[in-house]
Amino acid sequence: MIQVNNPEPLWVGINTALPNRIIKLALEQKRFPELANLLQR
Predict the structure, then answer these.
(1) Which of 1, 9, 31, 33 can bridge 26 by disulfide, Cβ–Cβ 3.0-4.6 Å?
(2) Radius of gyration of the CA atoms of the chain, in A
(3) Which residues contact 39 (CB under 8 A, 6 or more apart)?
(4) How many other CB atoms are there within 10 angstroms of residue 4's CB atom?
(5) Helix (H, G, I), strand (E, B) or coil at 21
C-alpha cells in the first residue's frame, strides 16, 4: 500500500525489475516444483 499525504495529483512509478529477477531466480532454483517446467524449452 502506498499512502501519499498530498492533495495535488502526482505520478507514481513502480519498478517491477526486482520482483521479476526474484521470481526468475526462484524458478531457476526450482523453489516452486509445480512451476519447474516453465523454464524448460
Answers:
(1) 31
(2) 17
(3) 27, 28
(4) 8
(5) helix
For residue 36, the tally of other CB atoms under 10 A from its CB is 13
Q: How far, in Å, are 15, 17, 18, 19 from residue 27 at the CA level?
A: 20, 15, 14, 12
Read off the C-alpha cell for 37.
Answer: 517446467
Using one digit for the tens of pLDDT, what is the confidence trace for 2-40? 677 888 888 888 888 888 999 889 888 889 888 867 766
How many Cα atoms occupy the beta-carbon half-sphere of 17 within 13 Å?
2
Task: Give the integer Cα–Cα distance in Å for 31 and 23.
Answer: 9
